[in-house]
Every structure is written in structure tokens, then in C-alpha cells.
Amino acid sequence: MKDGKLVTMAIESSCDETSVAILLEGRQVLSNIIASQIKVHQVFGGVVPEIASRHHLDNINRVTEEALKEAGVTMEEVDMIGVTYGPGLVGALLIGLATAKAFALAAGKPLVGVHHIQGHISANYIEHKELEPPFMALVISGGHTNIVEVTGYNQCRVLGQTRDDAAGEAYDKVARVLGLGYPGGPKIDKIAREGDPHAVEFKRVFLEKDSLDFSFSGIKTGVLNYVNSEKQAGREICVADVAASFQQAVLDVIVAKTVGAATRMKKDKIVMAGGVASNSRLRAMMEEACKKEGIALYYPSPVLCTDNAAMIGCAAYYKFKAGQTDGLDLDAVPHLPL
Fold first, then answer.
1. Residue 121 contacts residue 152 (beta carbons within 8 Å)
2. Are 270 and 262 within 8 A, CB to CB?
3. DSSP 235-247
4. What is the CA radius of gyration of the chain?
5. Sheet hosting strand 135-140, strand order edge to edge
6. From the CB of residue 224, how many other CB atoms can be counted at a distance below 10 Å?
């Protein structure tokens, strides 16, 4: 306890960010330290799991010390330890999990395992103090594209998900084809502002009638085929136009399905979460579509869209309040279902 409030220490290491945060009462962030590995993996054009694990090992103790120091909190004042246990890269998850277990055992604190996606959704509770379930959530990142019905702080149901590439993964692959580098999402978002979103009409894939699932592998192939055919014909490719057209085709589907799900399920709130939720074009399109339907839209600041421990701490707090804790036998689950 600190000033009579519950203190959560949280650890996130599911991919290539090593993060530790300290929170009061689940929503007040005292510290949220993030050690990013983006520059390390840029050379390879994507995250290399073994290298990510090694950097987590190098960073975790330093990041933990920084988080406690910045928050002005001692381990004695910590009431619980939240940690991501899946989904993610197994080696990366194990570093965070082993650290959380060590602190829980040494300091005699309860351990709370958190689903990474639940964490992303919970980032909105930190940003928007008034937000409460129920609502519809769009979780959109490098590894996930899900439409989730959230009925309580610890209750949710996946209504739609990607059948192949996640949206962020498709962005990375298309960025590579266009020679933009890694990470692809921010680079496409930036250059697309200079392009015509209807210069190339890539196919919108809606799948079966009323399906809330996604498929982005086709549009990725469509971009590759277009670029190859233009090169073979000796025509100059306008990268900004291709990026804008690709992005528009992807987002047309995402926005239509998310807002459609909310109206169908009679939800008056939509929250966005995950790295791609910071995309400027997605935010603009969602704001316009939600306004038309009378739906309130919520999304976090960019730092809370990317992987961070503050969101994990918030999710852990609500699990703890519901009496849900885990034993020291908690294991990493790389393909953990929601």
C-alpha cells in the first residue's frame, strides 16, 4: 500500500519491449519504463526471437530498478505483481515471467498472470478514467486483429479475428515490398498522407456474409503483384499512392466490420487498442464512422498503444480485485487464446 492505495508492479516482455510499471489503484501510473529493441531488429527487417530474449535478459533488472525508483515505491509497498504470460514469443515471455516469480517469491507477493490482449484493452482504462464496460473493442497490432465484446473488466468474447496475417503484419510486409523499412506501420501511415488512397483499387476482402473475421494475405499479395507488374512494364511506381491505396483497402474493411459489430450487438462505445490503434488514418475513419452511428470512440495515447507494462498492471489489478491470482507454477503460453 502507498497512501492507502493498492500498488501494482507489472512486467511486460511478450515481444521486443522490456517494460516494468508501477500503478496505484489500477489506473494511476506512477512509472512506466519501456526499453525498446526497434533499432536492434531494424537490421533484420523484423523481430528475431532469440535476439529479443537476450535483450530482455540484459534489460529486465535495470528497467525494474528504474520503475521502482521513478515511482518512489519499495517492494515492501507493492501489493501484487502482474505479468504477461501469453500470447507472445515463448523465450521473451519466460524472461518476464521468471522475473515476476522471483520477486513474488522473495517478497511474498501475490502473482497475477495477464493475457496480453486483455492488457491492450485495459490501456483505455488508464487513459479514460470514466470508461467502464460493456463496450466493443478493436484490438489491432502486429500479431492480432480482433473484434472483442467486452462485458466486464475480466469478461470478454472474441467475435472476429484474422484468418491469416494480422493487420500490423500486413503493414510490415507491404512496407518491405515498397522499400520503406521496419517497422512498417508508422512508415506507411506517414507516407500515405502524401498519396491518393484511390490511385490503385486493391480488393477489399469481407469474407462470408455477416462474418466478423479478417483476411489480409490477399491484399498483401495484391500489392506485391502490382509492384512487380509495374516494374516489368518499366513504369515508375508512386510509393505514396500504393501505400495510401493499400491502407485504405485494409481500413475500409476494419472500420466497417468493427462499427457493424457494435451496432449489431447494441454497443454505444468502441475502444481501440494495440500498436495500429495509433494509426492516424484509422483514427480519423473510426471517428467519422462512430459519429455517424452515435457511438462513443476511445483510444489510448501512442505510448499506451504499443506494448507496455502499465496496461498489464491495469488488467492485473482488476483480476486481483476479483480474487484471481496465480501460483508460481504459472507457465508461458505463446498461443494463449482469449
1. no
2. yes
3. PPP-HHHHHHHHH
4. 20
5. 155-161, 145-152, 135-140, 269-273, 296-298
6. 15
- List, in sequence order, every beta strand (DSSP E) within the chain: 7-12, 17-24, 28-36, 80-86, 111-115, 135-140, 145-152, 155-161, 269-273, 296-298
CA dist 64 and 241 (Å) reads 44
Q: How far, in whole angstroms, is CA 231 from its chain's centroid?
A: 35
Q: How many CA atoms lie within 13 A of 22 on its CB side?
A: 22
Contact between 10 and 31 under an 8 Å Cβ cutoff? The reply is: no
Decide: helix, strand or coil at residue 41: helix
**Ramachandran sector of residue 59 (left: φ over 0; alpha: ψ -120 to 50; beta: rest):** alpha
Summarised one tens digit per residue, pLDDT across range 58-115 is 999 999 999 999 999 999 999 999 999 999 999 999 999 999 999 999 999 999 999 9
165-199 pLDDT, tens digit per residue, is 889 899 999 999 999 988 889 999 999 999 999 99
Alpha helices in 112-193 (DSSP H): 116-127, 167-177, 184-192
State which H helix or E strand residue 71 sits in.
helix 49-71
For 320, residues 6+ apart whose C-beta sits below 8 A from its C-beta are 6, 8, 79, 80, 82, 110, 112
Write the burial class of residue 301 (CB in 10 Å: 0-12 exposed, 13-18 middle, 19+ buried). Answer: exposed
The reported pTM is: 0.92
Closest C-alpha among 150, 3, 165 to residue 71? 3
Which residues face 34 on adjacent strands? 19
* CA distance linking residue 249 with residue 246, whole number of Å: 5
Closest CA to 298 of 148, 136, 185: 136
Structure-block grid coordinates of residue 301: 495515447
> Which set of grid coordinates corresponds to residue 335?
498461443
Give the CA angle between residues 319, 133, 313 to the nearest 5°. Answer: 35
Residue in this structure with the C-alpha cell 519501456, named with its chain if needed: 34
